[in-house]
Amino acid sequence: MSGQKLTSSEALREKYRMERDKRLRKDANDQYVEIAGKYSDMDEDPYVDPGFSRAPLTDETDVIVIGGGFGGLIAGARLRDAGIDSLRIVERAGDFGGTWYWNRYPGAACDIESYIYLPLLEETGYMPKEKYSRGPEIFEHAQRIATHYDLYKNAALQTQVTGMAWDEAASRWIIKTNHDDEMRAKFVIMSNGPLNRPKLPGIPGVESFGGHTFHTSRWDYDYTGGDVTGGLNKISDKRIGIIGTGATAIQAVPHLAEGAKELFVFQRTPSSVDVRNNHPTGPDFAASLEPGWHKHRMENFNTLVSGGYEKEDLVHDGWTKSIREIVFAAASGKDITKISPAEFMALSEQADDHKMNSVRARIEEIVGDSDTAEALKPWYKQFCKRPCFHDDYLPTFNKENVHLVDTDGQGVEAITPTGVVVAGKEYELDCLVFATGFEVGTSYTRRAGYDVEGRDGQTLSSAWEEGTRSLHGMFAHGFPNLVMLGGAQGGFTANYPHNLDEQAVHAAYVLAESKARSVDMIEPTKEAEQAWVDEIIAKAMMRDAFLAECTPGYYNNEGNVEARSRQNTTYGAGSVAYFKILAKWRDAGALEGLALTNA
Ligand code: NDP
User: Fold this and answer.
1) Distance CA 112, CA 82 (A)
2) Ligand 1 pocket test: which of 100, 196, 209, 245 has the largest number of ligand atoms within 8 Å of its C-beta?
């Protein structure tokens, strides 16, 4: 197998199928277990002092926003812009920041360009320091937004929502929390985050490990030493294992390798790791930008990564380059607007092969040991899994203290009190790090951590038992004055905050309009909701063939591409089209599909 090069397209297809089939499991999403029991502290907040208490809140605001990550912050900002001042953000963490509050593992950084990833740059007057921001800068920016828009005022931090119910008589939501609050609000915006619940693999014996252990989103620096910049100076006598080789592990592994006596990287599916090439923001960059540049740049990126056409590639990085190679370079001089869908598919496939061959070739160039290099090669199309960009991950495997333990797609076999077993061999460890990601395929309310009781006592979990039902992924029939951000049936873009911003603008528009029209209740009609569900299912089928061929992962519901996941997916024609639908709907001004009533 060593140095395997498959150049013919058919040979590659066959290899991809073989590698996918090896990984398909009947238990799909059920292979993961909830963080509970011995590991329940993996879901707690290690960054605040224990024992925080305050008097319960029973007051009323116009809007309560649940979640203080980028979604909640942008919603707060857009509400302020729309003249809605009576609001409160409720957040379970000790500060704003969401993903960037929790994920402080060594090397944490974002590989979407900072000038498009960080929200509200023009509004806050901030210019990121580098093309790709590191975690602390992004976390700090979350606080900058909160301060700029005065969102700390009235915020309820360290507050976990435990449930919310619609009070029909008063036309108000009542939000209950772990501090015995019963806050009231006319509107609620839920922005719970898509990847907020750490998950563990249900490996036999997972709870039996007797050594030290933690999840990457709750990094234990007391044990490892160092901080988010690295310098893990307390583990030089330790044998460390890490399970998982996704986007998080790619960033943390070089630091673990630097600090540990021995590092064992347990791999099930290798990531595609391309060039990162970070650099400081040039002194002339800010001066070159015209007002409105931020939105323009986000849209330029989003169109390109969605396979659309732009005259210029402003971001010009690994994401847009891949798409250029897939779409444009492959067309080699052909007018892309005049080719048939079948020809387009064939060209895309060729370009994807070209891209992935170069990703695999890069591994051979960098990694000295040929068996290790072979095991690190990804055998799937680039956008089957989240592509990674890093310049230190692959060279790490040339270090003598680093051992790749490839499980040939099967995953770790067992965990014992003293270590991890793969193919019958036990690897003894002092510490085991779970880089096993976050719940994606589980129900919305399970991930939110609370249920929502709407009109006539119906819960959101029961209304969505057979799949998500919404208008535009944001409003649900039976749940008046409720807006959801960032969930299923909305838009998907690699630049996640872009979608949150478009939805936050939309939410602020709807709330401001209902205020201007003196409306007490807004709620999507059954018909409008059904029409959107039908549209989601119809469009999702467009991607079924692509996803079915992919290696299992959270993009394709762990390989289980059945009807339920089609209903729980994002808008299949892409976020460019989705954002246009929202904008057109606002421009029409009729609030079509929403019933407006007065109490
Ligand atoms: P992922 O879900 O992407 O990765 C989890 C890893 O755990 C996978 O490698 C998975 O293997 C592995 N795994 C699960 N079960 C087992 C098992 N039984 N045995 C062995 N391995 C197992 O989580 P991450 O935390 O890495 O990333 C989550 C998301 O966060 C990313 O997809 C990305 O969207 C985002 N992120 C973004 C970053 C950025 O730069 N912007 C940086 C970091 C994260 P398998 O692939 O086979 O399922």
Assistant:
1) 29
2) 245
Given this model, what pLDDT does residue 16 score?
95
pLDDT of residue 266: 98
pLDDT of residue 2: 43
Percent pLDDT > 90 in the chain is 75
pLDDT band at 322 (very low <50, low <70, confident <90, very high): low
The token pair that represents 244 in the structure block: 């998982």
Amino acid symbol at 262: E
CB of residue 322 inside a 6 A radius of ligand 1: no
CB of residue 145 inside a 6 A radius of ligand 1: no
411: Cβ below 6 Å to ligand 1? yes
In whole angstroms, give the CA distance from residue 197 to residue 385: 19
> What is the rounded average pLDDT of the residues 281-307?
94
SS3 content of the chain, % helix, strand, coil (to 5): 40, 15, 45
Query: Can you name the residues that pair with 433 across neighbouring β-strands?
Result: 214, 242
Q: Return the residue whose CA atom lies nearest to atom 6 of ligand 1.
A: 244
In this prediction, residues 276-291 reach a mean pLDDT of 94
C-alpha distances (whole Å) from 208 to each of 162, 203, 220, 422, 429 are 30, 10, 19, 16, 13
**What Cα–Cα distance (Å) separates residue 524 from each residue in 8, 470, 499, 501, 528?**
51, 8, 21, 21, 6
Least trusted range by pLDDT, from 1-5, 43-47, 81-85? 1-5
Residue 275 is predicted with a pLDDT of 93
Q: Measuring from atom 34 of ligand 1, which residue has the nearest CA?
A: 386
Q: Whose CA is nearest to atom 39 of ligand 1?
A: 110
Cα four-point dihedral sign 534, 535, 538, 543:
negative
Ligand 1 geometric centre to CA of 435 (Å): 6
